[in-house]
Specification:
The protein is mainly alpha-helical. α2 packs antiparallel against α5, α2 packs across α7 and α3 runs antiparallel to α4. The longest helix is centred in the first third of the chain and has 32 residues. The N and C termini lie far apart (about 35 Å). The protein binds fe (ii) ion. Fe (ii) ion binds next to α1, α2 and α4.
Amino acid sequence: MGHGGDIIHELTTDHREVEGMFSDIESLPPGEPRRKELADQVTIELVRHSIAEEQHLYPAVREHVPEGDRIADREIEDHAAAERLMKELENCSAAAPLFDRLITALMIEIREHLQDEEDHLFPLLRQSCSPEALAELGDKARRAKRLAPTRPHPSAPDTPPLNKLLAPGVGLVDRARDALTGRGTH
Ligand SMILES: [Fe+2]
């Protein structure tokens, strides 16, 4: 399943990519430095995904889905919880015992989010929104994600802005968010 199509298709494609990255992390032994590189990449991917959802999915849910406000508020709380875990992860090396606890907690949190959206939210939205509106939202979601690299290469982040985002130091989540929302550039 490639990128493209309506917003549900686009976001579901993101979900499969994130799951693939989680499987890669799980396939490596604890302490393996590559686990940290993958955690950084999945963080960028999740920030892009969250921004697309916050800007275009949840407003549509609020507008079209019955009890949409309640659903959107809960989803945004879930994003905030995941973001806190990702910020803690930034400061952990793959060798730190805390790294394993945090990445495990993040995977549980995100997998629940993916399943919940795919089982409940997306079907509700499809029922309440016209195909044309969903297609238009798909374009908007892709535009929202475009400022960050579409396909971070695992070992060679040598093109901006990924090299900038992955530069050592704290604040990866914030830098990724700033790059995507254009914050700090105008
Ligand atoms: Fe999602």
